[in-house]
Amino acid sequence: MGDDGCVFAQVLTDPGPDPAAALSAEDLSGPSGAGVLIDVGATAVCRTDLQLVTGELPARRLPVIPGHQVVGRIATGPDAGTRVGLVWLAWACGECAYCRRGEENLCEVARFTGWDVDGGYAQQVRADPAFLHPIPDDLADRSDTEIAPLLCGGVIGYRSLHIAGLTGPVPAGETVRLGLYGFGASASLTIQVARHWGVRCSVVTRSSFEVERARALGAEWAGTYGEEMPHELDAAITFAPSGDVVLDALRSVRRGGTVAINAIHLDRIPQFDYDDLWWERSIRSVANVTRADAREFLALVGAAGVRTSTEVLPLADAAAALTRVREGDVSGSLVLVP
User: Does one domain contain both 102 and 199?
Assistant: First the structure.
């Protein structure tokens, strides 16, 4: 918050192809909405932010402050100073059939951070206290900028592993192979959890730099699109927002294998032969995350040694950061600090 009591924020007012035109830098009287007041320490930039700002993902509310990978500290009250994180899921009703089954990520009236309610591209934000995630004590030595990318890319990657059928350590004597298609920020965190569980990982990505990064993080094989996968996969996760990649993954999994699509928005899935799906192969989408996903993943980060790779930018450079995400000019995660 500034000396004049105003809160600086990057506000989405008019979605369009140019992030610099879509966002406006504003000094607001304070964060909107009800809930706990949080002083933002860092907000990581996500491709979903770009899709919202450009209008590829239609706006639900305008104006709105984007940003859903938020780390900060509670500003007032008995818990003041407590470090917490915000994720994509900002609220769910708790009463519908989905919520009662533990599937609050599918709640039909759920609200999402930076889409339905203001997010973290600001100095302060308000959030429902029931949807705050305390940062575990074993991450006390990690900075806000290190933790922020965990709160979307890491959590959704963790859920993707579960959707793909991988839920914990591989039993002794067994071999499980996972393919990761695309190797941005989320995949680079997902592979660390999978390797911690003893899963053998292969990576297909678009650049030789990402191939080398995948190998450095323990991939048993890594190559670019068009290279033939050298072995059959038990499961695959696609991170690239392309339906063609989904079909590449489907053709690489064994009978009974699952392809999990880690994308909130996909361009299309081309027509394909039923033979590619037969033998009980399946395609599953990954939709949002639950609070349990966030708690379980954050509790695992320290033990698994999951690390983020970040580049820190001032909040004033939000539009430039989103442009770089669009152009693929990112190594690891871009993180905005107010």
Answer: no
